[in-house]
Amino acid sequence: MAARTAAVARRSGAASAPLLSIGQVLAKLSPEFPDLTPSKLRFLEERQLISPSRTESGYRKFSPGDLDRLRFVLTMQRDHYLPLKVIRGYLDDLDAGRTPSLPMGGAVPMPSMLATERRYSRDELAREAGASAALLGDAVSASLIAPADTYGDETLQVLRALVELQRSGIEPRHLRGFRAAAERELGLIESALIPVARRNDPSSRAKAAELAREIAGQLEVVRSSLIRSALGRLQS
After folding, report:
1. pTM for the predicted model, two decimal places
2. What whole-number distance in Å separates Cα of residue 70 and Cα of residue 159?
3. Given CA atoms 105, 106, 109, 110 in this order, what sign does their dihedral have?
4. Is 108 exposed, middle or buried (CB count within 10 Å of its CB: 0-12, 13-18, 19+)?
5. DSSP character for 203?
6. Fewer CB in a 10 Å sphere around the end CB: N or C, the chain?
7. Which domains does the chain have, with CATH numbers?
8. Per-residue pLDDT reduced to its tens digit, 178-221
9. Which residues, in sequence order, are CB contacts of 83 under 8 Å at separation 6+?
10. Contact by Cβ (8 Å): 51, 2
11. Which residues contact residue 57 at a Cβ distance below 8 angstroms, ignoring those fewer than 6 apart?
């Protein structure tokens, strides 16, 4: 694993850059990933997604390549709900010089090419999405977009989708059921996590978070299949 991490570091051109402590890694990545904790970092190391070096005293030290790799893993989890074993398989192929694809389709940029997510104010979000202020307000009222001071790329994608849906006559108020469905799915996930959540230690919390993402990904597979099946009946 150390060799794979070193390979990523060489590709990012930062193999000789200063190493970072856990605290420095958290400071750099927490704005993008607020749920990142030291226990999460240790869990990802246990799963062989990252392999930081160690000082003589045993403290973990992260290279810029490790940071790129970590940002990639967290982005794939957050934005695509991919299981860690799938992400690790992708990285193994990447380190072997292949150009693999992930289940959501298409090749994914190398970790060093993942940029920090841009943040948008409310006005910037509406402008980038081509949405009216009224549509954005309706989306917030329908709980499709959470109110916030700034928004990320995922919210931008949602608002762009709402713009296209509005052109077909589908308004945010028509989608209120989506929020209710999401809450029901959350209840299913929470029920499945009860055996792990009872063990209230850092390692168990990290495992619960990973299991939640895996379950969410499987629910997305089922939902997509049902929609495709319904569309098939509609077209026939």
Report:
1. 0.51
2. 28
3. positive
4. buried
5. H
6. C
7. 2-113 (1.10.1660.10), 122-170 (no CATH), 179-235 (no CATH)
8. 888 888 888 888 888 888 777 776 667 777 777 787 788 778 77
9. 210, 213, 214, 217
10. yes
11. none
